[in-house]
Amino acid sequence: MARFANIIVDISLEKLDKTFQYQVPPGLEHEIQVGMQVKVPFGRRTLTGFVLELTDEIACDPQKLKPIMEICKDSVQAESQLIELAEWMRKHYGGTLNQALKTVLPVKEKTKAVERKILHLAMEEGKAREMLGLFEAKRSTAKARLLRALLEEKQLEYTLVTQKLGVTAAVIRALEEKGILTIETRTSYRNPVSHLDSKGYHMVLNPEQQRVVDTILLQRDIPEASKVFLLKGVTGSGKTEVYMELISHVIAEGKQAIVLIPEIALTYQTVMRFYNRFGDQVSILNSRMTKAERYDQYLRAKNGEIAIMIGPRSALFTPFSNLGMIIIDEEHETSYKSETVPKYHARETAIFRAAQSGAITVLGSATPTMESYYLAKEGCYTLLELKERVKQNPLPRCEVIDLRQELRQGNRSILSERLQELMEDRLKRGQQTMLFLNRRGLTGVLSCRACGQALKCPHCDVTLSQHNNGKMICHYCGYEEPTPKVCPSCGSKYLGGFKAGTQKIEELVQRRFPTARILRMDYDTTRKKDGYEKILSAFANQEADILIGTQMIVKGHDFPNVTLVGVLAADMSLHVNDYHGAERTFSLLTQAAGRAGRGDLPGEVVIQSYDPEHYAIQTAKEQNYEAFYEREISYRRLMHYPPIWNMLVVLGTSENYQELSEAMEILSEQGQKAICTKNLQLQAFGPTDPSIGKMNDLYRKVLYIKGAGYQDLIAIKDYLEKVIRDDLKQKDVSIQFDFNPMNGV
Ligand code: ADP
Ligand code: ZN
Ligand code: ZN
């Protein structure tokens, strides 16, 4: 039982690092918990604060510590829950409490909401006229001017008064003190969706959709039933309509809903659908908003002005006071995993956050993650399916082309004969084609045909990408150098692009189809504000015949006139060096294929591959998730990979290679020892070099720890954190924990 509590008395973030310590009086010892709101003496005042931490470590003279006065009853406020959530995140993902708090609490900025002050006449009119006479007699011209204007208008903008009437703040204050006027402060929030038109329109669900909604609502009220639902349904099966129907139930009960959507899919079209149904109750968050704009939206949520927040991962921390539901759409997206400490996963965090307020969590995807589907099969989540596309249009026809065969037949182009033939056909018929290139990271690599070396970044140990401005660029750190004429390793002049990037493909396709109108969507063309939306709407308006792009083209918009999708090299994502290769490939191919034949015209998909027999490619061709899952889960079981086992990656970074090696050896030794003495069911490997051995001039080393149970992994993390505090404090290294990493290390 902790004897002391670290308390934050002001929730505003600038003071977050400043906590005050108080005694936990014996009467409260059993009751007090992290996140609770308490009353504490502060100087001569009594303030309410939040318990950030309970501890036995005292920070100053115990004589000086004052006791907590009381726990505020009914303190289940948004902040309490978020602080408790931060504590949970710290425990489950590592890092400091401060890092966790900064993740969950909205950042308050100096340039916060724009304030408007309004002056109101506060005096009965007859009396005010008497006062006006008095001012005129005393030649108090400024006072008279202001009062005359107020008598005419009854209320005035503060800025108008000071700027147009030339009245000073002192004069306004004087009239306020005399009770002639009052000053009202209005916060004018920027509403990112207010320019839209709401029509309050909604669809009647089909029987399959209705059954899903009914099941969820029914199960919600059964105490012992699972409160997490996995909705599996191909794109176009009507999941979004199901979400909206559920939301309407939730808000009718006076509760709020959070909808997580990957940023890339958070298009104008999507927002419009929610706005059309729910109007002003909807707000959005996205990464292009300034901190102040984001803060405004958090405030609106806190003040109960909105009931639905749509946004990427961080929308999870919207301070709603009575949350009823969290929806995670496209739950397989890797962007739901944070890449900064705490490296939390939005799914697990959402489930905890929802449980805090008795809310439900709904996960939706056409290709659920192995984790979610496994848990659904185990009965931890409730599995619900939408098996048909709403518009009943059939899934596209899919064929796999063997690129090795093409090469043998003398076709060295990136487009197989078959794909060229189909593209030609679509151009003739005035239908559209999408060409999908699997991965930016592996494209545009320059390698030497004589010695096989690829050109790498001197700082990051990753391959550089060739851009058509004649430069080689590192996508991790931005390093640039001119494209060399000869191989830096062996001097050979046979340097060649061994896999083309999107720009190169655009050139090649244009050469093959000189009259075709081509749009390209990738990192470079979407970097500018609205770049993404512009390209999508140009393509939707049929201003182009062919859209070429990276994975960002596989989501978001519906293009009814697209009847052909070509996947140029399906295998690239198979060879990323972590265990997600097959899952990532299956999911990407399925999503890409889902882009064809969304309208009335049937669609076709061509998957080009060097490894056409691979089960990820074969099952994607058949659009058979079950078959893929069965193959993949047996592989995971065999290899003890998640979701069968859990994995913890301990990543160390340092400028000093020697220190890093020593530190990681200490962690490894101590870890092994703890596994034995504490009898933890874990296996540890390392330290070894990760796939990227150096990034931004920092050396990197990793330890891998695997175990069947999550609790043992958390125990070893806690232990290693103590080792870091006690034994590594002299070393110039930084250590991060990553549970079940999704994006490689
Ligand atoms: P998903 O989110 O699974 O991709 P959507 O909810 O976007 O599916 O639905 C796909 C299309 O079908 C959309 O154009 C949507 O407006 C339409 N739709 C969905 N449900 C219905 C329904 N019950 N009746 C008519 N059209 C529907
Ligand atoms: Zn060479
Ligand atoms: Zn670099």
Description:
With about 750 residues, the chain is an alpha/beta fold. It is about 35% helix and about 20% strand. The protein is built from 21 helices and 31 strands. The strands form 7 sheets. The chain has a 7-stranded parallel beta sheet, sandwiched between helices. The protein has a 6-stranded parallel beta sheet with strand order 16-26-25-17-24-23, with helices on both faces. A 5-stranded antiparallel beta sheet has the order 2-1-4-3-5, covered by helices on one side. The longest helix has 21 residues, at about 655-675. It is globular. The two termini are about 40 Å apart. The mean pLDDT is about 85. Bound molecules: adenosine-5'-diphosphate and zinc ion (ZN) (2 copies). One zinc ion binds near residues 448, 451, 487 and 489. Adenosine-5'-diphosphate binds next to α8.
Percentage beta strand: 15-25%
What percentage of residues falls in helices of 4 or more residues?
25-40%
| Average pLDDT number | 84
- Rg is 30 Å
Structural category is alpha/beta
Q: Which segments are poorly predicted (pLDDT under 50) over 5 or more consecutive residues?
A: none
Number of beta-strand segments: 31
Largest sheet: 7 strands, parallel
**End-to-end gap:** 39 Å
**Bound molecule types:** adenosine-5'-diphosphate, zinc ion
- Describe the global form: globular
Strands side by side in the biggest sheet? 11-12-10-13-14-9-15
- Total number of helices: 21
